[in-house]
Amino acid sequence: MDLVTMSGEAFDDNHTVLGAHGGGIGPTENTFWHKHVSSVMLGAGLAVGGNLLISVALNTQRYAHLQLEASGGGEKHYLKSWIWWAGILLMCLGELGNFAAYSFAPASLVAPLGMTTVLANATIAVVWLKEKLKPDDILGASLAIVGAFLIINFCSKDEAADGASGKLLIHYLKQPALLTYLAIEVIAVAFLLYFREKKCQDNVVVVLLISSLIGSWTVISAKAVAGLLRATFHGDSQLGQPLLYFMIVVLAVTAVLQVKFLNQAMKENPATVVVPTNFVFFTLSAIIGGVVFYQEFYGLQMLAIVMFSFGCVLCFGGVFFITGRTKEDFDVGKMMSPVYILAPSSPLYLTNQTQRFILLQPHRQKT
């Protein structure tokens, strides 16, 4: 039986490459290419739309807190506000859009587009919450927009049009490059945990590196689960594949650990340091994971890789400029709430912004 890879190549049961669709260039190549490009653009649209919903959710939550504070209700009653729960609903819809995006587009495209939330959050805060617009916001937004354009334009377009099969994912899992990557990550996480315990327990870089390295497998497993489910919806049922359930477990465990370490970083350091640093580390880790596991840069010309990388750098710069404006808003004393107690049990993939939302809920005062 021949299998088709994410990049459109086919291989037989001995994993011998046969060529695009198992044959040479034919009259259907253009149709095949446009189908893949349309799939990737749909994934990009889902990622941007999901992040926009998350941004609206964040500001809806914040608006609910401001209303309660203005009415004298205090922070302890925010769970009774329908506006707050509307924000929760929007948050779930946004995360669903992000999750679906991984079944249509490469992880190396979806992860950097998380900056959409940061950009939209700054815009909504100025327009809706009447916060002051600063030059750094304008510069950061400009960098982020240009970076997003480059990322979308130069990313890999060779995405499986109908989802991924269990056999294809097993083939990827057996690749020497992935096994080497996994070994390096395990050794790196073990070393960082030891180094943090013995030398620098409050070092934000060490904690966020641990969170991001674990997060790369959150992205890999989220994309695998989304691709298997999409293939199932297209009529190629993957529900009998043990790999589907294994990846769901990996997704749940790594998401919990990721939030756990991010929470530790937020408790010990200002959010103006944690948020942009986490975005950069997590995005780089997700891109590397996608490139190694799903071979997402396979077939790309060097110019495309350079321009894609430059787009990521611009997005990183934009996030640093934009998040620098919210120093007063991220009070370390207002990070925990009962929401966080429930959040780690969720098997859903959590974007950087949803993690930030969980960690920045007002502290529930004791009565």
Could you characterize what this model shows?
- The protein is mostly helical and 367 residues long.
- 68% of the residues lie in helices and 2% in strands.
- The protein has 13 helices and three strands, in the order βββααααααααααααα.
- Strands 1-2-3 form a three-stranded antiparallel β-sheet, with no helix packed on it.
- The protein is globular, with a radius of gyration of 21 Å.
Q: Biggest β-sheet, characterized?
A: 3 strands, antiparallel
- The total beta strand count reads 3
Tally of individual helices:
13
Please compute the radius of gyration using only Cα atoms. 21 Å
Mean pLDDT: 76
> Which residues form runs of ≥5 with pLDDT under 50?
4-27, 326-353, 362-367
Helix-strand pattern, N to C?
Answer: EEEHHHHHHHHHHHHH
- Through-space gap between termini: 66 Å
Q: Key features?
A:
globular; mainly alpha; 3 strands; 367 residues; disordered C terminus
Q: What topology does this entry show?
A:
Blueprint: E1 3-4, E2 9-11, E3 17-20, H1 29-70, H2 82-104, H3 107-110, H4 115-127, H5 135-154, H6 166-173, H7 176-198, H8 204-233, H9 242-268, H10 271-294, H11 302-323, H12 338-342, H13 352-359
Antiparallel strand pairs: 1-2, 2-3
Helix pairs in contact: 1-2, 1-4, 2-8, 4-5, 4-11, 5-11, 7-8, 8-9, 8-10, 10-11
